TrEMBL record:
Source organism per UniProt: Paenibacillus amylolyticus
Protein name: SSD domain-containing protein
Pfam families hit by this protein: MMPL
Entry-linked InterPro entries: MMPL_dom (IPR004869), Mycobact_MmpL (IPR050545), SSD (IPR000731)
Compartments (UniProt record): Cell membrane
Amino acid sequence: MAKLLFRLGEWSVRKRKMVIAGGLMLLLLVAALGLGLGTSFTGEMTIPGTKSEQAGIILNEEFPSSGDGGQIRLVFKSETGTLESDSNKNLIAKAIKEVQSDSSVTSIVSPYDAGTLSADKKIGYADVTYSQPASEVTETSKEHVLDVVKSLNDRGMQTELVGSVAFSELEIGVTSEIIGVLIAFLILAFTFTSFLAAGLPILTAVVGLGIGMMIIVIGSNVVSMASFSITLAVMLGLAVGIDYALFIMSRYRQQLAAGFERNTAMAQANATAGSSVVFAGITVIIALVSLSVVQIPFITMMGLAAAVSVFVAVLIAVIFVPAVLAVAGDRISPARENKWLRKMSGRKKTEGTENRWGKIVTRKPWLTTILCIVLLTVCTIPFLHMQLGLPDSGLKSTDTTERRGYDLLAEGFGEGFNGQLVVVARTEKTEDPQAVIAKATSYIKGLPDVASVNPLIPSPSGKAAIITVLPKTGPHDIKTTELVQTIRAEAEQVMKDNNVEIMVTGGTAVNIDISEKLDEALPKFAILIVGLAFVLLTLVFRSILVPIKAVLGFLFTLGSTLGVIVLVIQDGYLANFFGIPEPGPVLSFLPILVTGILFGLAMDYEVFLVSRMREDYNHTGDAVKSIRSGITYSGPVVSAAGLIMIAVFASFIFAGDAMIKSMGLALAFGILVDAFIVRMTLVPAVMTLLGRSAWYLPKWLDRILPNIDVEGESVMKDTHSVHTSKEESESSSLMSKEKSD
């Protein structure tokens, strides 16, 4: 792989103008195609095979008239008097008539016809159904409803909107993302001591991000993809794009400082750092594609979309970056030591591979190891009471109409109104099936935490019925989950005794089933990831103990990250600081996503840091010296890369959407822990304790394992030999000339 990348680097440098023009043309092409087609994200989060999904299928079979049209609920609250006053009735009647004037509206049920008024008559709601699915309701229709709502609010009647049609769109948070990029630029400028050198990794990352995003947008028109898939792709594409360019550019400047000619230095950088980038990128891609093993469609598409973004970032790093650096020419200077970094590390110019941090970690390895493990364990403890769920309007900001409508419904009809359960009952008995169903489902009324049970609604065939159950508790309360489980447990006995099939569906039951399914999938996915990490790292480092240490470090990273997420998102600590509107359950698919993404990124840092240690150990045979050398030379690059990732991910914490906030917070904290506590502290300390045995590999295993050569040692030997021969030849010619003179 190293020799292939060496030749690719040479080609990119030689064809620099063609490569840059080709990259920009590709960006323009996919942008034109993507913007022309537009986005077609669905936002649906369903899992085939769950109990609620099976109930939904029967519901659609028995009640075909229910349709798939998008629905909204106009929620009214009277500020003066009740909704039954003549003035308020007239206002609502005019509003309903105005909403119905939209040709896309198929039906609207007033609160007076449906009896949907609260006990004190101050809060009520009207249900509106559209002819199109929720995701296809036009902006014109939305604006029409919003104008009606504004008119009512201006006249003193609070009116809000909830339902399947989204009025508060999912936003990535452009402003905060720009701030993250600016912080990344400052970190690069500090690392490279050059503003031009700092700008190039960001420039190439943005080109790659643009291509990746447009490919995903085009793909959304072909396959069903959740709307937040592109958010994860943006996070990863931008972060790894900058980091991968940083690694190659850093090695390029090191080769220039070593005296190599620019074209050769670039090819060497592509062969060495480029090999690490390709391996790291493949690791992240494998982790993301492996999300498909949980067999959850929207999770699979999120992983594949992010994998596309990372794949493009790798191609840009090893093809486009060399061409850009070649065009920059002499404006990119050889690597020179940053005096501020030297002072921060406590290393003097004459100290070589010694620095203060390396000395601390390797001098007190037992103390360092124990402190790290204690800190990570304490952070992991909250993970033990993690509760999973999906965000709903109740977890949105109060600035959104959905959240205000959610609160009004809870105020008027009770906390359980937003978590209603739809019970579907079906029987094959032909004699008075409705009476049989009514008797079989009568037990539901007597269950704990049931506030009320609506009369059953028979299906056209008469063999099925719908029963709406109102819990006493909200949709995220553990008691509501227990109620669903109790209804289902009793239903099994009812099926045996009365031959009546009873199933529970509805938004709350769907969320419960998704969370349980994802909770079950997490251990399996984690085992797969851990096994994959061990195999890959054994191939790279040709060691048994180094991969075991890396895997254990990753588990500490994962546990502490999820623990802190529970502490902030679920328990509410520092919620105000991070702008979290309401504490609630952890996003159900977050643990699996964090496991896959952090695994890939953690292996990136492990490879970039430990591969340098392995390289020095192969040359010197001194385990401790090689550890300090790795911290000295690779440590600053890994630190800069970690800070850049943290800056990019943290910028998403302050986005408006709860899902984006939780993903940004989890990934930012995970990188903070993995890069600085695990890789830069715990890993060197443990390797110091292991000594030479860290690099032990049985001879029989050494013979059968392929040599991946991630550091490109074979290429470096060849080019070093040529470089040395050239210097000797020049020196010999000079001596001959002096003798002849």
